[in-house]
Amino acid sequence: MAQKKIIVIGGGASGLMAAGVAATNGAHVILLEKMKTPARKIRITGKGRCNITNTAPIVEFIDHFGKSGRFLRQAFGRFFSGELIAFFEKRGLKIGFERGGRVFPADGDAPLVARLLVDWVKEAGVDLRTEISVVDLLVKKGQVAGVVCGHNQKIYADAVILATGGASYPRTGSTGDGYRLAQSVGHTIVTTRPALVPLRTAERIGNGLAGLQLKNINARLFINGKRKTQAFGELSFTKNGLSGPIILTLSSLVVDALRSRAQVAVILDLKPALDDAKLEARMQRDLQKRPHDPMSSFLRGLMPRELIQPCLDYAQIDHNMTAVMLPAQARKKIRHWLKNFRFEITGYGSLEEAIVTAGGVKTAEIDPCTMESKKSKRLYIVGELLDIQADTGGYNLQAAFSTGWVAGKAVCG
Ligand SMILES: Cc1cc2nc3c(=O)[nH]c(=O)nc-3n(C[C@H](O)[C@H](O)[C@H](O)COP(=O)(O)OP(=O)(O)OC[C@H]3O[C@@H](n4cnc5c(N)ncnc54)[C@H](O)[C@@H]3O)c2cc1C
User: Fold this and answer.
1) Containing structural domain, residue 89
2) N or C: which end of the chain has fewer CB within 10 A?
């Protein structure tokens, strides 16, 4: 049988995996990447440490994708976290396991993951061509037959794998080209929007709080006054709002709520381990020890310095007042503020700052066993370009690798 010629468009996580697998399975693979270097996004993942995947069992893993998770069941059934970890270990990458099932390279080196993947595809014989942007798909009799690059250069192939990513962090190369290419052969694009983004608050946070990072915080999300969900962990303040892992986790729901013009509030519990009675006991203990401290230093035992003024403003307490002078009613206000630091949410970060793009190619139009398009034969669509998105924890990269792996196998079948 003649060797199959495959074109992969996009050298990110999904495209590199698809290209390497297809080449290993005997195909002649051309990988077209528009940037000077492939895998630019992988290099910055996980704050430069690359959270490759997660050890959560498959059912829990799929849950992290919400409604879009069902589509991934088949791909995960064939190439999941265990296989991905084994894949990297086989190529010499030492793996580290962290809290919440998160999997990283042991020395936290995201660029190393990128280099390892690029070396692997080259060794597998993939013809990797960089600084080539695909501008169109060639279609013959309803089947994809190749691609058109800049200067109208046509390249023909037996199958094309579209792995151009979403539209977030466009400086890494994912500028949303794939949506237009998929649309050109009849695909529906579920409205794209930023996911895993910082949130903007009604009141400017200002320089006083900007940059402050807090651990062990519980954030409750309210939409139109109803409590929707909560997240526990780390949070940070930006000049115009909130960010950090727990805010990113809540952000997908917030984006959809704000787009439908709902009212959104995030209420922070800064002392989730202490109920009102325990907080009062704690304040009484501090009072015994330091009765003549002004409020500005008395409260240092309960909160970081940056939070003292917002707390005193809320409780309408003069910062020079000594602890012993503090009326019970004022202590109650402080306790209430610590458990209910409230922010009205009025906006969210742009796609430029979004970790992933929600929306994308409608998954009902893709065969979940092969990633082949149901709109156009010989076209396969993988990775973040699809309407799949999860919260943080290594889920998104696993989805890119798994869908890439499945397509790489299927094109050779
Ligand atoms: C800052 C940041 C941190 C992240 N951290 C994590 C993490 O730790 N764990 C995790 O699971 N997920 C993380 N993600 C998400 C994850 O990186 C993505 O979901 C994943 O990389 C998507 O892979 P992909 O192959 O679909 O797309 P991409 O990695 O975006 O690759 C697409 C490639 O296609 C190329 N391309 C685009 N258009 C064309 C064209 N017309 N012609 C040729 N080439 C083209 C692009 O240049 C790019 O190289 C992070 C994302 C960001 C932005």
Assistant:
1) 5-192+359-410
2) N
